[in-house]
Amino acid sequence: xxxxxxxxxxxxxxxxxxxxxxxxxxxxxxxxxxxxxxxxxxxxxxxxxxxxxxxxxxxxxxxxxxxxxxxxxxxxxxxxxxxxxxxxxxxxxxxxxxxxxxxxxxxxxxxxxxxxxxxxxxxxxxxxxxxxxxxxxxxxxx
Length: 142
Prior knowledge:
By secondary structure, the chain is mainly beta. It has one domain: Alpha-Beta Complex (Nucleoside Triphosphate Pyrophosphohydrolase). The protein is 13% helix and 45% strand. It has helices at 57-69, 135-139; strands spanning 2-5, 11-14, 16-25, 28-34, 44-45, 47-50, 71-82, 94-106, 114-121. The strands form two sheets. Strands 3, 4, 5, 6, 7, 8 and 9 form a seven-stranded mixed β-sheet that branches. The protein has a two-stranded antiparallel ribbon with strand order 1-2. The radius of gyration is 15 Å and the shape is globular. It starts with a strand and ends with a helix.
């Protein structure tokens, strides 16, 4: 969590803002297998990550998708906000802005955060125990 000192001398622990992105192509969704250096290593996850200081939520979603998958996307739409302070398997508290989008052109390679990228049919997703965080629940909400 983020520790913040306010002008009046009070302090508070704040939560991180993150984006989670469902990248769709017809009846398929793109997932990445998390690198072994990361929390929830080896599990499948949505593309996403922290919102940086000087970007909007949509800019963060597009940046994270490009970094983690190499894809440009279109039709970015906010699906839901997850503000549960007890999201499973997290090492800090995050508020997730969950987006759906359509895969466009692949213009680069995935960064180090995922060891593998794979398109899954929406009716043939990996089992819950192989999916990171609460991403299985997010996948089942579409």
